[in-house]
């Protein structure tokens, strides 16, 4: 979370930004809270059940950075998208830089 420049909470159905956090202090507090999650207890699953309906997506963005080739992006880059499925125990994490999607079942 230290390199995050902002977090947007997006309605998964309309793609409308519902809320946004860009305060360094608030992002640090959120990072501290997320660091306390017991990620080791999450179960990797092949997919989220078909009856799960996407509800909200917290999307994390990072500041522009210098690349190995010396050029830099002048826009924030989406670094992580987490899809939440209402009152279920499932989430989907998407890491754009790796084009990697992971589905998890969370402990109750």
Task: Please name the defining characteristics of this protein.
108 residues; mainly beta; seven-stranded antiparallel beta sheet; 1 helix; 7 strands; 40% strand; globular
Mean pLDDT across every amino acid position: 88
DSSP strand content: 35-45%
For the biggest β-sheet, the strand order reads: 2-1-4-5-6-7-3
How many β strands by DSSP?
7
Main sheet, how many strands, which sense, barrel?
7 strands, antiparallel
Shape type: globular
Structural class, by secondary structure, is mainly beta
* Count of runs of 4 or more consecutive helical residues: 1
Radius of gyration: 15 Å
| Total domain modules | 1
The helix/strand series, from N terminus to C terminus, equals: EEHEEEEE
End-to-end Cα distance, whole Å, is 25 Å
The oligomeric state is single chain
